[in-house]
Write a structure and sequence with these properties.
With about 700 residues, this protein is mainly beta. The chain folds into three domains: about 240 residues, Beta Barrel (Porin), CATH 2.40.160; about 130 residues, GMP Synthetase, Chain A, domain 3; about 240 residues, no CATH class. Helix content is about 10%, strand content about 40%. The protein contains eleven helices and 31 strands. Strands 19-20-21-22-23-24-25-26-27-28-29-30-31 form a 13-stranded antiparallel sheet. A hairpin with a 7-residue loop joins β25 and β26.
Length: about 700
C-alpha cells in the first residue's frame, strides 16, 4: 500500500501509517503526527489512530521549546504518548522547565462511508499539567488527498475561549489531575491536510491555545490563531516538518515510525528449515514400517545423535529423548527462535528425517530453565501432508498439553550438561528523570554468563565496567523521608567501575502437576541480595495462573560488590495472572514491598505476534503520597523490541526500556531474574497459539 506523509510538525506520518478509511483514500493520505506526538496536525489533534502496535518517536521544537515524544499504539484504538520537554523561562524562578507528561488518545469510531472518525483525548494527565487539555474531535476524508478535522478543547486547547467557569489548578504532585478534566474555558479548533504529492503534504489549523505562559515568560507573540505547516516524507520510516506557529515562531520536527509488521531488515535473511522427509506409503513398502529396529541397542543412540546434531546446527538443544517403535518425545531447549512454534516446527521436520518409518507420533516438549513446560503432539502423517499449507491447518490437528513430570524412559543427550553460555554487550544507563537536574549517562560494557549444572540448576552472573560517562558527577541525592529502598539509585549509579549487577544460583522444578517452583540465592540485583522463592500454578491450557513469592533480602553496598548495608527486610506477594487473548495479559500482585509498605500492583502487557511488547503498571500502597514523593504512587510504561526486528535474523535477544516519572521508595519490589510466569508464558498454550503463524517458517 502506498503511504504518504501527512503530519504536521510531526511530519512523521511515518511510514506505514496508512489511513483507515476507503481503499482509495488509503492510497493517497497517510496519518499525520502533531508536535505533541499523537495523531494531529500541529498543535491540534485529529481523530485517527496509528497502526496497531506502531511505535512513533518524534523531536519537535522552536527556539524556546523542545519536545521529545514517544507514542505507542497499545491497542487498535488506544494511543499512549510519553513526552519529555524543555520550556525556556517556565521553571521555578524563571529557569528552564524540564517536564515529562503522559497522554491518552482513544478513537471511539473509525471513519466509514459518510460518517467521520471520532476520538477523545487527555493530554498531560499528571503532575503540573503544563500541556494539560482534553478534547473531542472528528476527522473526515473529503477527497483522496484532503482531510478535515473539527473539535472542541478544554485546558490549553481552549485557553483562548470564554465561559465555562474557572479551571481548577493541577495537583503538581505527580498524581492524576482528574479534578481539572473537561472543566474551565473551552473553544473549538479545526484543521485541514492536503497531500500535494507522494512526498509533500501541506496543512493548516485554527487553534485557540493562547500561549499565555510563554507570552508572560519569554515574550511569545501570539499574532493569529492560525498555524501552518509542511511535511516532507524522506522514506518509509522517516519524515521532517516545518511549521509557522501563531504567526510568530518557526519550528521543525523529525519523526521516525517503526511498524512491527514491517521489519527494518529485509525478509529472507534467516536460514530455511530442513524440509520434511516423506515416508514411502505403507502399501508400496510395508517392510519400511517394521519395528524390529527397536531391538537393536545401537538404534536409539544413533537416532538421538542424528537429531541432536541437526538441532544443534539449527540453534536448539536436544536435552533428552524417549523413543518407542511408534512414538518419540523430544525435550528441546530453544536457544534461537523468539517464537516457540517455529522451534517446534523445525524440530518436527528434523525428526522426520531421522526416525524410522514406524514412528508416527512426534511429541515436542519445550524445556524452560530445565522444566518441561508443555508438549505438542503431532502426527507424522499430518506433518508430511500439511507441510506446504497454511499454519492454521497444522494448528487444527496439533495437540498442546501438559508434559510428563518425571524422567522415566527419557535418555539424556550425552554432553548436554553441564554447559556454559556467555556474552559481551554494551550498556547505556541514564539518570532518572529529574526536572531540576540535567540528564546524566554512562556507557560501558557488560560481561554476562550462565552455567547450567543440570536441568533446572543454574549459576548466573555478570560484570559491568563503565567506559565513559558522567553519572558519577550527578549532584542529586535522595531526600526521601522513609527508608531509602530505591531512591538511593543515584548512589549506586555513581559507582560505575567493575560492579557485579547480579550473581546467583537458582533451582527450578515441578513439584506437582501444573505447579512450578523457583529458589534463587545470591546477589539478586544491583541493590539487593538474599533468597527468593516462588511457586506458580499454571495449567498449560488455562488462561488463569496463580503465584506466590517470598523474598528475604539485605540491601547491597553502593559499590555493588560483596558488601552489604544495614537494612534487611522480607517481602511477600500473592499474584494472579490472566491471559485475555490477542496478546493481552493482566497481572495483580498484592503484598508487602521493600519499604515494608503493603499494597497492590496492577499491570497490563500486550505482546504482538512479532515479539513487540508494551506494558504499563501502577502500584498503590499504604505509604502516603507525601512520603512517596513527587508522583504520589509508582507507575510507568515498559517497552520491549526483539532484536530480530532490526536484523532479520532469529534471536532471543531484545531491547527493553522503562519510562517512569519518578523513582520513589513506595511500592518497590526486588528485581529477580527468571520469574516463573515470564519464563513459561511463551511455551504454553496461549503463547504458542499467539505465535503459531511461524510454525512453518
Amino acid at each position: 500500500m502506498k503511504r504518504i506523509t501527512g503530519g504536521i510538525a510531526s511530519a512523521a506520518l511515518l511510514a506505514g501509517m496508512g489511513f483507515a478509511q476507503t481503499a482509495h483514500a488509503q492510497d493517497q493520505l497517510a496519518w499525520s503526527i502533531g508536535t505533541l506526538g499523537a495523531p494531529g496536525v500541529i498543535d491540534t489533534p485529529t481523530a485517527e489512530s496509528f497502526r496497531d502496535g506502531e511505535l512513533v518517536a518524534s523531536v519537535s521544537g522552536y527556539s524556546d521549546s523542545q519536545r521529545a515524544n514517544f507514542s505507542f499504539q497499545m491497542f487498535p484504538r488506544l494511543t499512549a504518548t510519553v513526552r519529555f520537554s524543555r520550556e525556556k523561562g517556565l521553571g521555578v524562578g524563571g529557569d528552564t522547565l524540564k517536564d515529562r507528561s503522559f497522554d491518552l488518545h482513544l478513537q471511539l469510531l473509525k471513519e466509514q462511508g459518510w460518517r467521520p472518525a471520532f476520538a477523545v483525548g487527555l493530554r498531560d494527565m499528571f503532575d503540573n499539567g503544563f500541556y494539560a487539555s482534553e478534547y473531542l474531535v472528528a476527522s473526515k476524508t473529503i477527497t483522496p488527498r484532503l482531510r478535515a478535522s473539527v473539535g472542541w478543547g478544554w485546558g490549553r486547547l481552549g485557553s483562548g475561549g470564554s465561559g465555562g467557569g474557572t479551571r481548577p489548578a493541577p495537583s503538581r504532585s505527580g498524581g492524576l489531575n482528574s479534578d481539572t478534566w473537561f472543566k474551565g474555558p473551552s473553544a473549538p479548533f479545526a484543521s485541514v491536510i492536503w497531500q500535494v504529492s507522494d512526498k509533500i503534504a501541506l496543512k493548516a489549523e485554527y487553534s485557540d491555545d493562547d500561549y499565555a505562559a510563554e507570552t508572560a515568560a519569554n515574550g511569545f507573540d501570539n499574532k493569529t490563531p492560525l498555524n501552518f505547516g509542511v511535511d516532507y516524507k524522506i522514506n518509509n520510516i522517516a519524515s521532517v516538518s516545518g511549521y509557522l506557529l501563531h504567526g510568530s515562531k518557526v519550528g521543525f520536527q523529525f519523526n521516525i515510525a517503526l511498524d512491527p509488521r514491517q521489519p527494518a531488515a529485509p525478509s529472507g535473511l534467516e536460514r530455511a528449515p530442513i524440509p520434511v522427509a516423506p515416508r514411502p506409503s505403507r502399501a508400496s513398502n510395508p517392510q519400511a514400517y517394521a519395528t524390529d529396529w527397536a531391538q537393536d541397542p545401537t538404534a536409539q543412540p544413533a537416532i538421538q545423535k542424528s537429531i541432536g546434531d541437526a538441532l544443534q546446527k539449527d540453534g536448539q538443544v536436544l536435552e533428552a529423548m524417549k523413543l518407542t517403535p511408534t512414538s518419540v518425545d523430544l525435550r528441546i531447549s530453544n536457544e534461537t527462535y523468539r517464537a516457540n512454534p517455529q522451534a517446534i516446527g523445525h524440530a518436527a521436520r528434523i525428526a522426520s528425517r531421522a526416525l524410522p518409518a514406524s514412528v508416527e507420533t512426534i511429541k515436542v516438549t519445550l524445556m524452560e530453565r530445565g522444566m518441561p513446560a508443555s508438549t505438542t503432539v503431532l502426527k507424522r502423517s499430518d506433518i508430511e501432508r500439511l507441510e506446504n499449507g497454511p499454519s492454521t491447518q497444522i494448528a487444527a490437528v496439533a495437540k498442546i498439553g501438559e508434559s510428563e513430570r518425571g524422567n522415566a524412559g527419557f535418555v539424556t543427550t550425552p554432553g548436554v550438561y553441564p554447559r556454559l553460555m556467555w556474552g559481551i554487550a554494551p550498556y547505556l544507563e541514564l539518570s532518572p528523570f529529574d526536572p531540576a537536574n540535567d540528564l546524566h549517562a554512562d556507557l560501558g560494557v557488560t560481561l554476562s554468563g550462565r552455567y547450567e549444572l543440570a536441568p533446572g540448576l543454574v549459576i548466573a552472573g555478570a560484570l559491568r565496567q563503565k567506559a565513559i560517562g558522567n553519572l558519577d558527577t550527578n549532584p542529586k541525592t535522595s531526600t526521601s523521608t522513609v527508608q531509602h529502598v530505591r531512591s538511593d539509585i543515584y548512589e549506586y549509579q555513581r559507582h560505575g567501575d567493575l560492579t557485579i549487577p547480579y550473581l546467583t544460583i537458582a533451582s527450578y522444578g515441578r513439584p506437582a502437576n501444573d505447579v512450578y517452583s523457583r529458589v534463587t540465592v545470591g546477589l539478586l540485583e544491583r541493590m539487593y541480595g538474599g533468597v527468593s522463592g516462588e511457586l506458580l500454578w499454571k495449567p498449560v491450557d488455562s488462561r488463569l495462573a496463580l503465584g506466590a513469592e517470598v523474598n528475604l533480602v539485605k540491601q547491597r553496598d553502593f559499590d555493588q560488590r560483596f558488601s552489604f548495608r544495614n537494612y534487611s527486610t522480607a517481602t511477600a506477594f500473592v499474584s494472579a495472572y490472566y491471559d485475555f487473548g490477542n496478546g493481552l495479559t493482566g497481572e495483580l500482585d498484592v503484598g508487602r514491598y521493600l519499604a515494608r509498605d503493603f499494597g497492590a500492583t496492577i499491570s497490563l502487557d500486550r505482546e504482538m505476534a512479532n515479539g513487540w511488547k508494551v506494558g504499563a503498571w501502577a502500584t498503590m500502597t499504604d505509604m502516603s503520597g507525601s512520603d512517596f514523593g513527587p508522583g504520589k504512587f509508582d507507575k510507568g510504561i515498559r517497552l520491549t523490541i526483539p532484536l530480530g526486528y532490526a536484523t532479520g535474523m532469529p534471536s532471543l535477544k531484545s531491547f527493553s526500556t522503562m519510562l517512569r516519572p519518578y523513582v520513589g521508595d513506595g511500592g518497590a519490589r526486588v528485581n529477580v531474574d527468571g520469574r516463573l510466569y515470564e519464563a513459561l508464558d511463551g511455551s504454553q498454550q496461549g503463547g504458542l497459539y499467539r505465535d503459531w503463524g511461524r510454525f512453518w517458517r
